[in-house]
UniProtKB/TrEMBL annotation:
InterPro entries found in the cross-reference section: Cell_wall_mannoprotein_1
PANTHER family for this protein: CELL WALL GALACTOMANNOPROTEIN (PTHR38123:SF5), CELL WALL SERINE-THREONINE-RICH GALACTOMANNOPROTEIN MP1 (AFU_ORTHOLOGUE AFUA_4G03240) (PTHR38123)
Signal peptide (residue range): 1-18
Domain of life: Eukaryota
Name the record gives this protein: Cell wall galactomannoprotein
Key words of the record: Signal
GO cellular component assignments: extracellular region
Length: 187
């Protein structure tokens, strides 16, 4: 007599879990916000890097910490975007256009500019002993960029060759900019 009630009680948590997983569809607006969060982190990193002038150990700890903290913030935003992109459905043409436009208007501009500032501060970072830390940060961020971009590209609409080429160019330009920074700190 109590078997149906017991079965219902036991199955209810699994049904709830399955329903919650189904509701976790990631809209394009979430990916767009992830890109914006990365962009804001990059802008903060650029400002912190521009303010960094090197110096002795104490000065470096005080003025270098914001540079490293912003790298951490970019990394966290990027990993969230990576997870969101992997959970996202296949996007249609309009959503893909909106995502690619966001990339082109934000991180495709801010990341290359940030790398130029980082390269311009190479002597200050190296003199303070932070050159290897900057290099490691750039390597982390290129991996973040490549994996997030691959996840987004895999969910993007591919029926428009011009749109696909625009997205691939933005991704490649960002990768190449970060690679220039890695090359500068590797020599």
């Amino acid at each position: 007599m109590h078997l149906p009630t017991l079965a219902t009680t036991l199955l209810l948590p699994f049904t709830t879990l399955a329903a919650s997983l189904h509701r976790r569809t990631i809209p394009a607006s979430t990916i767009i916000q992830d890109i914006e969060n990365i962009h804001q982190g990059v802008l903060a990193n650029t400002a912190a890097t521009e303010a960094y002038d090197g110096g002795n150990l104490l000065t470096t700890l005080v003025t270098g910490t914001p540079v490293l903290a912003t790298v951490g913030a970019i990394h966290v935003a990027n990993r969230k975007g990576f997870v969101d992109a992997n959970l996202a459905p296949q996007y249609g043409e309009a959503d893909t256009r909106a995502i690619f436009d966001k990339v082109v208007d934000t991180v495709a501009v801010s990341i290359p500019a940030a790398v130029e500032v980082i390269v311009g501060k190479k002597e200050a970072f190296e003199d303070a002993g932070l050159g290897p830390v900057v290099l490691a940060s750039l390597r982390l961020l290129i991996d973040d960029h490549d994996t997030f971009s691959a996840a987004v590209t895999a969910k993007s609409f591919m029926g428009d060759a011009e749109l696909t080429a625009e997205g691939e160019k933005a991704v490649d330009d960002i990768h190449d900019a970060i690679q220039r920074g890695i090359d500068a700190y590797s020599s």
